[in-house]
Amino acid sequence: MAGSKTAVVLCMDVGLTMSNSAPGEESSFELAKKVIQKFVQRQVFSETKIELALVLFGTDSTDNPLSQDGQYQNIRVHRHLMIPDCELLIEIENQVQPESQQGDWLDALVVCMDLLHTETKGKKYDCLNIALLTDLNTQTNEESLEVIIKNLTQSGITVQFFLPFPVEEDKEGQGDSERRDPGHPGTGKGLSREQKKNKELVKEMMLSLDVEDGLDEIHTFRNAIEELCMFKRVERRPVAWPCQLTIGSSLSIRIVGYKAVTDEKLKKMWITVDAQSHQKDDVKRETVYCLDDDNETEVQKDDIIQGFRYGSDIVPFSKVDQEQMKYKHDGKCFAVLGFTKQSTIRRNQFMGSQIIKIFAARDDEHAGVALSALIRALNELQMVAIVRYAFNRISNPQVGAAFPCIKQDSECLMYIQLPFMEDLRQFTFPSLENKKFTPSDAQLSAVDSLIDSMMLVEEDENGEQRDLFKPHRIPNPAFQRHFQCLHHRAVSPGTPLPPIEPWLKAALDRPEVITERCQDPLDVLKRKFPLTEVEKKKKLKTSAQIFGKESEESEAKKVKEDEAEEYNLADIAEGSVTSVGSVDPARDFRALIKQKILPFGEVCQQLTHRIEQLLSNKNTQYYMKSITCIQAFREQSVKLGNAEHYNSYLQSLKGSIPNRGLEVFWELLVQDGLTLISKDEVEGSSVSKAEANQFLVAEEKKEEAAPAPVEDTGDVDDLLDMM
User: Fold this and answer.
1) Residues 567-589, buried b or exposed e (16+ Cβ, 10 A)?
2) Number of structural domains, the chain?
């Protein structure tokens, strides 16, 4: 329907007969509107440079430049040539509605030709096109047909027709006629007199414009909807990457690389807009850097540098340092390091997000001969070239394999990136062989039959391989769903998003022929591999368990063994801890307690020192880290039966809350219920259970009672004094 640098006029019939339909079927108007919507959607989301205009005929009003002396009536130019946008989609959804008049489709065609001639004058276009959607159920002045054909030919304008029925008898089943009442006017076999007459006029016009393939430009509504249901991908021009292929120091071949396969990204990105005006310019984002102090002192951007975390420390790096630490090389290159057998390059080691095709430079005959010789030699010897690839001076170099690719009309190298040592993941798995469960020949045969029945490649009648499932023709479902929801939200704001379209679900499903073919092998597989429920054997109880005299000693021993095992694993994973650090003080505290090298009181003192450092930052993130430390402090104090250090610190912390402005932190502490350790938990504690429960409750009452004295003060100065 369109190409690059193209002007297209969509000419749609909205007249009276377009609304006719059989019960339960869509009318020609609804189908034609869907065709237009699908086409405009594709152009909007693919961001093409196609300019679109919309002309409606059969309208109640008349608005076109040729409507003089009662001619070209009931034709309205709804939108002039411009790049399609979401506003056009909204207009088609809300403003293009069926009307009560009839319009001459030949007159509408003349209006479209005049619009193209006027609005493209002085501009360069590769293609001028008119797409006319109608049911042809109108009276037409056929005297002007020859003149119209002549002017279309001279101006180079192409025409496409979209009808509710096919114009060729052998394609009758492809239209919409079989879906409706055969006697209903405006359908395939039950065509009205006007439709039959106009159908012949359309065939005459299209064959005059294009003798051979003219009728191929006449489509049915339903076929067009099926072809247009898929959102068109963003068109991208191939960008050449010129370079030199070098082998050693003496052989150099001029080459050009093109991306053959690459990871496609959505071009449109989410942006922040004002919730009311929906305008991007109404929202401005400012980034301000401040010191984490009471005054939140602002820091200029020039006074900030990057830091890299190295263990528990942060190593600062200036921009100069960052530039110097980058890997330096000579720039773009495609240097052959050596050759190896193709069999040594395993497919599971392919990596990267692109495949690059390497051709000889177009204007260099010597380069073409040299590269062709290299490609053919690699192909004959079943070898590949291992190359060093760098896209440009600032990109990191890669190591990859260049495979020979010879086709009937071209020769090239296919570059695929290979992994470095750090990219490889080594795993060790146990063998699948199990002497206890060895499959029988019948079971193996059943699995083979299932695999054969699910093969996605089969031979056709001519003995050629045919794909039943073609991934290269399946669009990215995430993109399709994304654009479907964008379109719906643009034209129907405030309504729920629609479900995934049926055609997209069907495209991702297993082919029906495979489903039918694998049914019998699956039944055989179920019979050959019967499933039986295995009951768990009851464990034999010991005499101590039966008579309830299990030794407490063994339980304590088990706990000690578990603790020792956990400690050893922690040592292996984290290394030895010598003090309570700032990265994870709670973990360090637990590790020091387990080591039993330092006295408990000294370790507690280190932890409280870290808690005080964290609380000095007055930030929710540091508050949460402090609470984690207090939880670990309480947990270990209870486990060791020493509540003195914990209770003493928590009481002193509570007393300093008002002066230090840590009310927010204390609220978090109250929410977590971190109170004093009572006698019920540790025998040596001097705090009763009632006092421990009252420790946090009393604080809440004081906070609630605090505002009472400043109530009902009308004097501003007195209020400020109180504050």
Assistant:
1) eeeeeeeeeebeebbeebbbbbb
2) 4
